[in-house]
């Protein structure tokens, strides 16, 4: 949730522009995921990834933290921790990974500006 203020600011700043924020939630249940999104004021789409974390007892090998993402989305996108940030362009191509702070803002604003200038 550390990224939440920045995420909210991006959503507010880019309202009406060609931009979409999407979150994938790793709460243990759908009900808790919905409650978290409502409580935190997350107005953008939030996808629930099922039981997103598991231990080796569930048949997955341990990584250095002893836990691994188990949800289908987390596995497909190779999530190793939360938050994992991907910036996609309008074609769905990954343009950046793991950006934070001003680097994330700059990349998102650059992509949005390029779309608006077409």
From TrEMBL:
Classification lineage: Bacteria, Pseudomonadati, Planctomycetota, Planctomycetia, Planctomycetales
Species per Swiss-Prot/TrEMBL record: Caulifigura coniformis
Tree of life domain: Bacteria
Protein name: Thioredoxin-like fold domain-containing protein
């Amino acid at each position: 949730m550390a990224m939440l203020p920045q995420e909210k600011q991006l959503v507010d700043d880019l309202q009406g522009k060609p931009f979409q924020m999407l979150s994938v939630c790793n709460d243990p249940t759908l009900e808790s995921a919905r409650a978290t999104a409502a409580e935190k004021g997350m107005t953008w789409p939030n996808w629930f990834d099922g039981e997103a974390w598991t231990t080796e007892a569930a048949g997955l090998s341990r990584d250095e933290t002893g836990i691994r993402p188990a949800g289908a989305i987390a596995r497909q996108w190779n999530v190793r921790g939360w938050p994992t940030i991907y910036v996609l362009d309008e074609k769905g191509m990954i343009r950046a990974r793991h950006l934070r702070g001003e680097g994330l803002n700059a990349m998102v604003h650059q992509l949005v500006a390029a779309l608006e200038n077409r």
